[in-house]
Amino acid sequence: MQLPTYVHKDNLGQWGVFLEQVDRVTPHLGKLGVWADTLRRPKRCLIVDVPVRMDDGTVHHFEGYRVQHNISRGPGKGGLRYHPDVTLSEVMALSGWMTVKVAVLNLPYGGAKGGIRVDPKPFSSSELERLTRRYTSEVGIIIGPDKDIMAPDVNTNEKVMAWVMDTYSINVGTTSPGVVTGKPVNLGGSLGRRDATGRGCYVVAREAMRRLGMEMRGARIAIQGFGNVGDAAARIFHQNGAIIVSIQDIDGTIYNPAGINPYQLRDFLSEGGKSLLDFPGAERISNNDFWSMDCDIILPAAHENQITLDNANNIRARIIVEGANGPTSPQAEDILLDKGIIILPDVLANAGGVTVSYFEWVQNSSSFFWNEDEINVRLDHALSDAFKAVWELGQNMKISLRTAAFVVGCTRVLEARQLRGLYP
Length: 424
Description:
By secondary structure, this protein is an alpha/beta fold. It contains 14 helices and twelve strands. Helix content is 43%, strand content 17%.
């Protein structure tokens, strides 16, 4: 039986990581620091029971969450994930990082996140649909195109977003495509959305490499995770002349110093029943060897808390591009920074997805749609400009890029909080 999982003061989990990051940035916020507690307390946390009738007629209950961390700059924005390890602490942290992320990109949003503590893999399509529709109905009181907009995340996709949109639309009595982003194109989704997060990882890496005098052609890349983000990032780095030397997923790690062709790997895995470890274009190595690999860039694009005290000392890469949210613990980051490793933080590096989600939301509002080339150009400009602002602030203040990104994002959020004042 699954018991409710709440945040305890002695075990803050990922929320504790976010709080530590807020503590580190607060001394750099000047007079706005008096508002820092705004960042330490989510605006709203909703915990819901999600009962689902399974195909065999039994009813199972699952615990769902929707957290709106801060909505001072606009409606909440954040993904919906299905995973057996989802907790309130994790969802709170992810919503907090989203608050900072959208502010770094200067998007008119606040941070939000949702999740259901469930393993969706054994579910049939009809069971997954009933789970999604019931969850949407339960959180419907706080979501909406001008309140809180969902998007795909771990174990959710375009189809899940279509079910969310349809359920919400039925309940409000009108078709409302803007309640979600990352939905199918023929329901108002945006071209370029699927690869946007991976493409954004490439853009910020490219900008960092330019400033460090590094060449993209021939650069050696190791990628953890070959889902939506890792796959897209691998393809785009490969297209631009980089060499994908290693890829790790839940099954293990493969390595080829001459390069792994991500297109061939994707085709191999799409055949069904295939494991990354069986790919004929690479050899198997241990998961520990992945982190000590001789490469230029490591791109963690899987889950939180992957770079820790256990492996930080072994990392030899020059740049870490955080494709996942919260992959590096604060203690591990201190070790990496002491070694001179550049960390491109999640609130900047993986912001491509929410940026194109914003483009989708705007297109839904205007009923006018752009082609994929226009989307990619706009995305490149947005991330390049955000990177420039963060990089220059970091250089001027002699602080890490994560702290610089938090200064940019938190300043914008707290300025909005201060300008709006308190009511009553």
